[in-house]
Amino acid sequence: MNSCPLSTLVLFDVDGTLTEARQSINLRMIKALRELARYSEIGFVSGSDLDYIKEQLWPALNDPIIKQNCHVLPCNGTKYLIPIGDEELLFSKIYEMSMEEEIGTPTFNKIMEIICISHGELVGQGYDIPLTGHFVHNRGSMINWSPIGRGAGTIERQLFQAADKLYNIRKKYLDKLRNRFQEEKIEVTIKLGGNTSFDIYPTGWDKTFVFNHFNKTDWDFWFVGDQCSRDGNDYEIFERLKPHSRAFEVDGPDETIEIIDFHILRYIGA
Predict the structure, then answer these.
(1) What residues are labeled active site?
(2) Which of 21, 63, 228, 241 lies at a C-alpha separation of 20 to 30 Å from 184?
């Protein structure tokens, strides 16, 4: 008896992959995703929470074709929602984890203390970087620390990226945080989030967490992302699917469109 063919699920990072950093999705990308959605399910797996995903992807999430075959996976997939409704963009929550419940309130508070101390140290180093506010964001299933603040606009982000490239700021504090957590025997993972921040979450809650929502015997998984180095938050899922030639590292949205058009759609027979 012949086995049933696998369904295809193409997972995309958002920031830097489907959009430019903290920018809205463009029409070319929407058209590419719409064509892909005719032949495949699509998953948006981001380190960001739902509010940022909606801000950047709402025209795609509200597209009638994409919406029918769409999975929204904020915070590395530790949250899972699907878009619903016809006239208004709404979401049905399928799943959600809590970092504080997982590791306990004392440990959670200790992590917050370490981050706040680290932020004070970084500011005190005298780096010429903008400080916009909202530096620590509790996303429920992860913590995000942005040295310049989540309120940073394009110019502030560019200034920080230039300073980071010159002084290697995030790499230094990535190592410092990892050492501090190890000293405190805190079992968490810290990764570079996007171009300006850090993501901190319980070990094992990286983007491979999305596979918990789908029976692996029923799906052919693909992934496209831009932060696939060891310190990037796409690393684990990229490495999981790379041996099967199902993972692609891109430099930005233009390359993502090429991957969709010339690799994925051609392979799945579109």
Answers:
(1) 13, 15
(2) 228
Q: What's the average pLDDT block by block, 10 residues per block, for the chain (270 residues)?
A: 73 96 94 97 97 95 94 98 87 97 98 97 92 95 96 92 95 96 97 92 98 94 96 97 96 98 89
Give residue for tokens 């190890």: 182
CATH number for the domain whose boundaries are 7-97+206-267: 3.40.50.1000
The token duo for 9 is: 């699920």
Strand ranges (E), 31-164: 41-45, 70-73, 79-84, 90-96, 136-138, 143-145
Per the rule left: phi > 0, alpha: psi between -120 and 50, beta: everything else, 245 is left
Question: 99-202, what's its fold?
Answer: 3.30.1240
